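Why show two proteins at once? Because comparison is the fastest way to build intuition. When a single record is shown, students tend to memorize it. When two are placed side by side, the eye starts asking what differs. So, the first record is below.
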Amino acid sequence: IALTIDIYTHLGFKDFVVKVNDRSLFKGIDYPVIVAIDKLAKIGTEGVIEEIHTKGYSLIEAKNMLDRVLNAQPNDTLNSIFSYLRAAGFAQDRSVFDPSLARSFSYSTGPIWEVVIAHFEQGSVLGGERFDKLIGRFQKEDIPGTGFALGFPRTYEAMEQFGLFPESLHLAPRVMVSIFSPSYLSSSVRVASLLRKSSIATEIYSDATHDLSKQLKYAVKRDIEYVIIIGEEEEKSHTVTIKELATRTQHSVRQDKLIEFF
């Protein structure tokens, strides 16, 4: 849970909360009912009661089970989790007890949690749970575990909605490594990797069959500053040719000095 808070904090989200519950608080409640309660935020109280009713329970039974869940209080396990999070320096309002949180996976056996971002309407962006019996379904011994799954598409959408992507991600690469011919593809890939490892935004041209003039036109259209060319002469001399598109100048640079050029 602490890790999930750190993830969304480092991504730049300011207004999010981790909702926490414990599946042991649902003890005695049948699994189909848990599945229905898990939909509370989407279909509301009356919708949950009606769905439970369609599973063979009377309306009174359905209402009583839902009331029992919603009136539950944190148990010792949850209180110890919240105490840990406070001791670790997380704000008190960053994690909250939510008795309606059900996580409708049949293998959940203990604490469960979800990350919800305020004003993001697509739902929770991460969910996790303890699963003490899951591994035992596939081998002879039970091995307790805890894990979570981050919803990448939703997290991406939320970051776009709140403008959390750095501006640098929207800029064109500074450098494009051309492919002089298919026989020099591996050299181009090697140089592109070298630049990327040095945090220089680099693109490698995608089609080794296109001639150099077409590749240069593509770089101009993309507003790329530099194009690197590695042909026969460059390969022999362990150099690269760097074309500076704005000034239409070019430079011959040793490959072991390439990073220094930029």
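Second record. Ask yourself what differs from the first in the token line.
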Amino acid sequence: MSLHQTSSKQTSRSLNQPGAASTRLQGGTLMLARGVWIAGAVAVLVIFFASLPANFAYLHNVGTNETSFSIRQLTPDGLRKLQVYGLSVDFYATYITGCKVIFVAAWFALGGLIFWRKSDDRMAFFASFALIMFPIGFTNTIALEALPPTWLLPVECVQFLGGISLSVFFYVFPDGRFVPSWTRWLLIGWVIEESYVSFFALTPVNPFVRSLIVGFLFIVLLVSLVAVQFYRYRRVSNPVQRQQTKWVVFGMTVAVLGFAATISVGTTLFPADARSGPFETMIAYTALDLFLLLIPFSIGLAILRSRLWEIDVIINRSLVYGTLTVSLALIYVGSVLALQTLLGSFTEGNQFAIVGSTLVIAVLFQPLRRRIQAIIDRRFYR
């Protein structure tokens, strides 16, 4: 019996198990919660769209700083690169601004959909609130240095709420409770970390204190989120909640790995002057935003319980083809190096090495895929 068939048969039974439903908000509590959500949504929209003209104008200025992965002005070299291709600063500013509008709109739309469908569900309500708050709080959605001083505090407050909300979400997901109960005290650490990032990021701080807060403390808190979800999955969650956890953890893992890989590739493979180019910056922004959009999409699927059991198939295929890709890449590189060494005395040695390695990969693809599939099925799904 296939993995998908086995998973599908569990759906009707698991959805009706005790504990699958979250605690409901009712009466005055529900009305108050909806009022808070609407007020927060209006504040986010006002702040974001009111800040767009200042950010758009800021991107038109030509500065001296690198633009690599942050909202900064073009460098003089970057401006010349644009002009070589007949493009203007207005094109660059419009593209970067458009990316941020789409990024915020996607998070906001998914948060609004969850609120519209399940605002009386405590966990769903909190998830929707976190989704509308976080994109404003995400680094570089709004360039603080581009804003008038009077706008700084409102933006910083929304950034703080966004960071705290998403952190709390991962502690209480998927049933809306702190499990174990002592994990609520970890929020003190998040308050310290988010307060520094939101309110004091532009303030000169002792390098040791900075590394302690944004380095050590952040890593410890991040590990605690993973540990809490692992504990819940193994000890607390029912079958439906485990599928919800798989969706969120899968989306978060791919987003974080993709985000880190994009930055790593950009900083290690390209020199500093190339990283500051306009096209490199636009490509980086697009890739980073696409990876981060996996977070709200996975949360939306988990909260709305749409296609829950398909995550098993997705994870299975990701493990198989991810392992296959890495294995084939290593085999290809090894084959090329080995054949180049053996055929080094021949004039066409490099071409023979590449052709021979390609043939080896073509021959090994299906047998290796079947072998990896069998190992993963035996290890994780039987």
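One difference worth noting in the second protein: The chain is about 75% helix and 0% strand.
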